[in-house]
Amino acid sequence: MATDVGGVGVGSIGWGFGNGLRLEVEGNVRHNRVRQISGFAAGPTASGGDQYSYGGMVNALFDMDIGLNWLYPYFGLGAGVADTYLDRVHSYGVPSGVRVSTNGWSTNFAYQGIFGLSFPLAAVPGLSLTAEYRFYGVLDAPGFHAQDNVAVQAPGGIAHQGRGNFNVSSDYNHSLLLGVRYAFDTAPPAPPLAQVAPTPAVTPARTYLVFFDWDRADLTDRARQIVADAAQASTRVQSTRIEVQGNADRSGTPAYNQGLSLRRAQTVAAELVRDGVPRSAIVIQAFGDTQPLVPTAAGVREPQNRRVAIILR
Fold first, then answer.
1. What is the reported pLDDT for 265?
2. Which of 21, 54, 135, 289 has the most Cβ atoms closer than 10 angstroms to its Cβ?
3. What is the per-residue pLDDT across 28-47, written as a single tens digit (0 to 9) for each?
């Protein structure tokens, strides 16, 4: 059975795990006009009527971080159940004289593949515009029981009239969708830290920033060089202590980010000790995602917030 281009509507609600993975429950509806029915001995025939599909799906999706705060590609798979309804679907003029007319339901296992692009809106934290493609289909060919007549016209009258079954050989759907997505747990950007008036005659602190890859606590070659520079500077300035402050961006949960920032600070402190700084002079602090350099919405991966600050006081 072939159909014309139609409409589709999709709504879903789900849960994000802070590492790019999302699970969601979806409801969808599709409508197409029937253009052609195949499968008769005489070949395809022009047809009419409407096909409606109502589906419930469970989807698993993954958001990819490609280093652009304004663009996040994502992809996923879904599975569920689809109810397909044929409304006054009919076929006339088959050369053999067969006339088919049916209203009927069919329930089948449904599946889909999803690829999309998400565009976060900086003006509304948590809100994103989306554009995506979906391939949607059913595992088995839908079958319908005719509610009207299946008849063969013969010279002089109707040779047979009764009820029968109507089968569809395939049911696939290619969809292009535009939409919006909102993260309900998004918090407004953290307020700026209170400014403390500088104390006269106190030497300003010297700060070194060490940056990390997403969800990592190990040092790059560039990071080791920065730590070495800080260790050498600590021997040339009058400092009473060295503060090592760990931070994380807001792409994970607050609890996870707190632990990650602590591991980053411990890694930098250990590198300072290897570079000759006494361990007793180092104070380790972990701030999680509460002190960002760049305020962002929850779930945003901001490279400048994945850092450890080495402060010579």
1. 95
2. 289
3. 999 988 877 665 544 555 56
